[in-house]
Write a structure and sequence with these properties.
single chain, alpha/beta, Rossmann fold, seven-stranded mixed β-sheet, four-stranded mixed β-sheet, 13 strands
């Protein structure tokens, strides 16, 4: 398209980031056992999760495994502490979370564009992997705002953050959209795929809850959040509503934006380009507007 892409925030080598764990540290037995459980097929993990939730003798035997904390085993977030009780086996992402290789292209985009003392919005934080990684990259002088509407997931982010006291993470238990209000949230058994009811993908759900929704522009105007340097969006189809509710913030502060598409590729690219951004495909060489529906893109202010 004739544009030259340059990093909007200075890339800082990972080894210069604060709070890096020792390369010699080894995972404990609890982490290895938990990791092995996350390797099971989804049906097996769901069966175990249901048995544990049901209580009884098997749940009592397994309780010590979930009573303590774990450490992420590798990658940029290696050594970050997690609450075992808040790393649900039924979530497909639990394996990648614990291993440290969740969505590596997104991790690399954060490494390149979130500088020490930076501010990250993690919109659709789920269990908080990118919130924790962002807090490590930004250091104690930076800030992370984790937006997560699923109550159990928001609790998980708080618990994980509490185990890493140098990390500056603020959890906002709400959905992000074009404007404030109340909406229904549909929660499948794997809560990482929770979605706003109005988007209604073909998934079985175990619960529906009414939640708060707010726009980024409104939250920033109210002083509840600081201006962003990087925004990561993963909202199971609501990405365009998130963008429309932060247009003034984007124009004023020009953050780098990392987003999973969920099939809204062409519309997202058109909206970002209209705001003066260049969009690239983080997961391949296909033009982002025409690529697969679950790709990740990086949107940077046009140079």
């Amino acid at each position: 398209m004739g544009y030259t892409l340059i990093p909007y925030r200075p890339a800082v080598p990972l080894e210069e980031r604060p709070d890096q764990p020792s390369r010699r540290s080894l995972p404990g037995p609890r982490a290895l056992i938990f990791f092995a459980l996350t390797l099971l097929p989804q049906d097996g993990r769901l069966w175990i999760a249901r048995r544990l939730a049901g209580g009884g003798f098997s749940a009592a035997l397994a309780r010590p495994l979930f009573a303590g904390d774990l450490q992420i085993l590798g990658g940029m977030a290696r050594g970050v502490r997690l609450s075992a009780a808040s790393l649900p086996l039924e979530q497909l992402q639990a394996h990648y979370f614990l291993r440290g290789n969740l969505e590596v292209t997104v991790q690399e985009a954060l490494r390149r564009h979130l500088a020490p003392d930076g501010v990250l919005y993690d919109i659709g934080a789920n269990l908080g992997f990118f919130s924790l990684l962002g807090a490590r990259l930004a250091g104690s002088a930076g800030r992370v705002f984790a937006f997560e509407p699923v109550p159990a997931n928001a609790t998980a982010v708080r618990r994980h953050s509490a185990l890493n006291p140098t990390m500056n993470v603020t959890v906002l238990e709400l959905a992000v959209g074009a404007r404030s209000g109340r909406v229904m949230l549909s929660i499948p058994e794997d809560a990482s795929w929770a979605y706003l009811e109005s988007y209604a993908p073909d998934r079985d759900v175990i619960a529906k809850v009414e939640i708060d929704v707010a726009s980024i522009d409104e939250l920033l105007d109210a002083g509840r959040i600081a201006p962003p340097d990087v925004v990561k969006i993963d909202t199971e189809g609501a990405e365009l509503q998130v963008m429309r509710g932060m247009e003034r913030t984007i124009v004023a502060h020009r953050p780098a934006i990392v987003c999973e598409m969920h099939g809204r590729n062409a519309e997202f690219v058109a909206l970002a380009q209209g705001l003066g951004y260049v969009v690239t495909n983080l997961d391949g060489t296909d033009p982002p507007a025409e690529a697969g529906q679950n790709i990740h893109v990086l949107a940077l202010p046009r140079a």
